[in-house]
Amino acid sequence: MEDEIIIKAKVLIGCDGVHSIVGSWLGLAEPVHSGRSAVRGMAVIPQGHGLKEEVQQFVGAGKRIGFVPLTKTDVYWFLTCASADKDAYLGGNPEAIKSEVLEKYANDLPELYQDIINHSDLSTLTWAPLMFRKPWKVAFGNLCKQNITVAGDAMHPMTPDLGQGGCSALEDAVVLGRHIGACIAQNGGLVPREMIKAVSNYAEERRWRVTWLVTGSFLSGWVQHGGPMVNFPNVGSNEGIDLTLFEVLGSETLGDNLNLVPGSEEDGGYFSRRNSVGAGIAGLGVAVALKRVGVKALVLERADELRTTGAALTLSQNAWRALDALGISQKLTSVYAPLERIYVTNVSTGAIQMIPLMTSNSRPITLHRKALLKALAEELPTDSIRFNCKITAIETQEHEGSSIVVVHLEDETVIKAKVLIGCDGVHSMVARCLGLAEPTYSGRSAVRGLAVYPQGHGLKKEVQQFVGDGKRAGFVPISDKEIYWFLTYSVSPQEGTKLRGDPEAIQREVLENYAKDFPEPYLDVVKHVDLSTISWAPLVLRKPWSVAFGNLSKLNITVAGDAMHPTTPDLAQGGCLALEDAVVLGRHVGAYVARNEGAVPRDIAKALSDYVEERRWRATWVIAGSFLSGWIQNGGSMWGLKFIRDAIFYTFIFPKLVNVANYDCGKLA
């Protein structure tokens, strides 16, 4: 201790708050800023406030204020407000806090409540950032180590939006007391080995309870807080991207009556009443769906040819249902065979688990990405895809009393359209226009490639997967001579970036570093890689709550594919979701077209809104499930997480997660 006293104990319980020394010692991640700050205070009205025993709460754009009578003279009040910087608060200056609240945040409140704030006891006023520990850090973190654990905010700091911080701390006290008490009663005292077990039992009983409280509190605050409406300034970019426009009004070089759908780095596409843009899975899928419902699409692609980025992908039952709706599944199922089962090998122990893959008519199929793109493109007229179209800016304007979208191309072409569908990938310009949060790094990167065996590989249609500490790899045959392989591993984005664009260095790093202790069959596959197919990329995702509660559309603008819901590949649902999007969007737009002759912005805005509401929660759960699947399977250094992976995950959790593949997006009409 600071006074040089040394205390020795059989058990240590860290109840040392949000920035816990004990929590740090256990390896728990530091709490993160929620994006909001809070002011709290006590108003004292000597003559009495006259309020009923009721909570009064006021919500506005990016703020929430509440009042709770405690006694006849005392009223507790609070304010939460958007705050980008966790350090940007007025702590230590109560007069400045009160002035800031009255002049900036409470100036539109009824006079009665402004008067309550004016009566604040300055000694009670505080301003602090709202912090929380990420739920997965609680769910899978080290909450105890031998005879050391944590309780209260040291374990589960959370935002105050459900009023559960103090409540859960009291629950901790009772649960911990019960386990320690039972241990003492059974052993006649503090037996160290048994005490370690009692502490562990306490932590496991609390783990999932507080994980859901942290999650629920954050979501509650996020929803109640609202925030400002999104507007659409002129958005520019130095990079060319692909878009999809609908019901184009005019173009300097493309002519009138175009309809475009924007596409992306991976999911390119434009669409309009007559056109769609972006030659990736989402963009081409949207264009085909629109064609099926009578809307011609022009696909604007920024590359100079059909994209073949990505060696292969796996399509599950939900994707094949979408391809059935688009009318092209037979093209692919006649060439590629379904997978039969998955074998998972623990590299450290040698243990092997076998996972069957559903029934014969619903098994996933791994295929060349270019084969899917070609199959989609073949359904479109030859003049439906225009290459070398690079978007530099997007803006909105008023036209005859309605909002239109104006898209600027690098060659100075200007296109005006009534609708814009952004299929422009992970770092979508259209998503930024809508105010969607940028995707965040998952903590892992991936290497992918295609191995070629000219004489044939002789393998069955089975997935071979290998798991180790902080890494996961696998391979799956695509044809008699080709094998798709991958590796995901935990790494800082800066460390991995140095490999980008150097296929030989990527292959060497995999063989000599990350996969050096993997079985020889995997190493042999990597050695046979076609270097032109090998790629390295960080795995990113849009936070689930950003999809659940974000602006996925506004008026005549929306997004599809990775532009809406970038997700990690751990459930192989990225391409599947994009195909679902295409069908759902086509169905809603088709219903609109059937009811209307000509594009009426108000009506089409309703169609786009219905589309995103149908997709919102589906995409949210897939993102969350994919992240959870990857987090557990990658293992890492935490013994608890590795235990869940090796003993529980593939038997009990994985089968439930892959149920996302049973989804049916429906038909186009």
From TrEMBL:
Q: Which InterPro entries match?
A: FAD-bd, FAD/NAD-bd_sf, MOase
Which keywords does the record carry? Monooxygenase, Oxidoreductase
In alphabetical order, the GO MF annotations are: FAD binding; monooxygenase activity
Q: Name the Gene3D superfamilies on file.
A: FAD/NAD(P)-binding domain
Highest taxon, organism lineage: Eukaryota
Domain FAD-binding stretches:
7-186, 277-620
A Pfam entry, by short name = FAD_binding_3
Q: Which residues form a coiled coil?
A: none
Q: Which family does it belong to?
A: Belongs to the 3-hydroxybenzoate 6-hydroxylase family.
Q: Which PANTHER family match?
A: FAD/NAD(P)-BINDING OXIDOREDUCTASE FAMILY PROTEIN, OS04G0423100 PROTEIN
Q: What is the name of this protein?
A: FAD-binding domain-containing protein
The beginning of the lineage is: Eukaryota, Viridiplantae, Streptophyta, Embryophyta, Tracheophyta
